[in-house]
Structures are given as C-alpha cells and as structure tokens.
Amino acid sequence: MAGVTFKEVTFNEAAQQIMSKQAHGLPKTGAQCKNKWTLLKLTYHAILAYCSRSGCHWDDEHGANINGPAAETVWEEIVSKKSNIHLKPFKNSGWPFYLKMEQILPHHSSAQGNAVYNPTVLALQDEPLVASLSSAPPDVSARMLNAGVSGVMHPPVPSLLPVSPHQSCPDIN
Hints:
Blueprint: H1 8-21, H2 30-51, H3 69-79, H4 98-104, H5 119-126, E1 129-130, H6 138-146, E2 152-153
Antiparallel strand pairs: 1-2
Helix pairs in contact: 1-2
C-alpha cells in the first residue's frame, strides 16, 4: 500500500503511550495500533479517490453530502465496490481525521518519479523500438548502420542512482 509505513517498534511505542493515557478498557498492543493505522490509511485513500472523481463532492462536515435519488444511485454504485467500502460511513457525515491524515499522508505520498518500479515500463524496455532511418539524413543513417545499430534503438533506462550528491548509495556488495 502506498504511503507512510512505520516499523514495529513505533507501533509498540504508540501502544505504550496510549496505555499511559488510557482511563478504561483493555490495554492496546502494537499490532492493534498497526491495524488501526492501516484502516486510517485505507479510509484516507478511499476519500482521496472519491474526491478525484468528476462531479463528486466532499467536505469535512457533511462528507459526500448525498442528497436526492440521482446522487443516491451514484453513491450506492460507488460504495458497492470492495475498494470503496471504507467510504460507507461518510455518506452524509465528515471524517474528523481527514485533515490530520492529510498532514501525514500528502496527496502524492506514494513513490513517484523515474526510478519507481513500474512493470509496464519494464515490459516496454524489453521490446526494441525500430528507428526510422529513412527520415534521417544519409550521413546519420550510415553512421548508425556502421556502428552496428541496424535501425534498432532501445529507450533510455532511468538511473537508479541518487540525484543529489548528498544522498548516499546503498552498498551493493
């Protein structure tokens, strides 16, 4: 799942902090804190996906604010999908954690950029692209053929090395 992930020790420390402030109920565990965090992320991302749909409304007080039979039909279609099940409670009421989650998980909190693993891009890199030598000037075509290129070109492979000289490279050995 895209977004911020914490180590086990962080969830255990969170459980201890909750226990120190808890007035009643069973003590919380690190596993329970991790499950709650996962649920919060799923809800946040479901709301983001809903907001990105054309014509869909969201506000912190009224949630999706579904009014009228047409809106009800669209809403039922949306929440009937398994991936949108976390939206159900927010038909006409907001989610009090939305703004706090937005601070932790900004809109593009998943990995992005040229070095992100994408199987589609990798599949395209395995297939050679045929260069059209007929539109190139004669001297370029001759140089490409003399260099053994024979009209086949491969797309550039993105660099996986750090961009900044201040970033460190992982030890490959």
